[in-house]
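User: quick one
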Amino acid sequence: MKYIFKKYEFDSQSQAETRIAALPSLTDEEGNENPSHTHTVVKLGYIWTTEPTYNEEGEVETEGVASDMYSVDVLWKASEITEVDEDGESTVNYPYGWVSKEISIEDNGVHTFAGWNFNE
Amino acid sequence: MYDKASLALIPSGNKASKLYSVLPANGNGDFNATRGSTATRVNKDGLIESVADDVPRLDYSNNADCPHLLLEPQSTNLVTDSSGGLYGNNPASEILTNAPDGTNTAVRPVPDSNSDRYEYNISGNTYSTDSKITYSWYRKRISTPNSTAYTGDLFFNILVNCTQIGSTTQIATNINGYDRFSATFNITDGSQLTRVRAYFGSIIGVGNSSIAYWGHQLEALGYSTTLIPTSGSTVTRSADDCNSAGTSAEFNDSEGVLFAEIAALANDGTNRRIAIPNTGFTALHRLEYFTTDNVINAVTYVSPSNQVVLSHTLSNVTQFVKIAYKYKTGDFALWVNGVEVGSSVSGNLPTGLTKLNFDNGSGSNDFYGKCKQLIYFNEALSDSELQTLTS
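Assistant: Done. Structure below.
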């Protein structure tokens, strides 16, 4: 398994941003900090549970209802989070703060990665 | 002069996780390729096809005889039905027809008189104020439409909370009979709903079916990327990553030439680099598309500072260009399309050069663009050789 597709819900956008910012990064020769991992992280935000409706001018006709959780999809590069012990046993170690926020849904929900179906 | 090359990538051979170089023959020059998702390309038969994850893309766009390596950033198609698009006002009926991927999934809408259009909504607080979004689509004229006045046969009008930047442009030609078009918009207020309307009804004409559309894509980028097929949800294509060609045996610390035939995807305000770093990433040579529009740089860096920076402004960064950067003690030069455009006689040289990357050498500032050739010569070529190489 080269990649692992997971879905997450965080308590807030700032909590999600903090977890994403903590993923591996390197400082380049100009002093800029850039991600050095090859995981694919997609911030889905506060997903509508009930979509709002709008009139022709784009004004809200009926208010929508958004989730109070901030959603993020990640396609983890397995080799970057897998540790192999002296017996050759491999263990996937997700970065701190992600495992407890993982969710499971039956289908792709509002988003997937190209060529991937969630839970397949 | 190609017999002076120690590492040569002419994109032609690949498999999962690997892009083969022509030189050296022992495989040391092969690149490691990663991409977590599938992606699409134009194949040698001129059709759009899906490429498996981790397989580097050799793209034959614009009816090319030879492919180029295509490296793109992560992007998400916000249109949840890329084949049919999403209607604002539905047409009276639809006729399915052959699409750019050879399937029978393109749609010929048959309009009624109700201002038929595609329409896309982006909720407030999804993107910030002044973010750019780009809509792209494929179009084939089955017969002459009612109006031929609109590029791509879509009329962007009555937009909500966004303005079109520039005009609609054609970005690809004759993909199974279809042309591809792109239009970019600026979000006025990120806190409000943004709505893009693309009208086709009056262009096609009531009761007619003169135009087929397919491959609808809306991305949060200032330019369009290759199609990300969708069916029922938004879909993200992972970024391409292609690195780690060569060993210290292929590189010469004292002198050499890095040559590339490349094109950028757009002026996107980022650094996109091809680098030869040393082991500790404390020194390197690199070519780069710079943050400033149409500027390319050749740079030699030895910690803690740049030793050489040679810059040149291109007329159009999306056109293929041949660039060579020569380094040697007291002799640095940048050649572009047969002309020496910059030189320097001072600067320290990196030691311990160890690999060739489509990034800044340490995993960021990835090169996103197209590459027909990437060749490293482990000796400094003469001016006449550099002129020939880059012409």
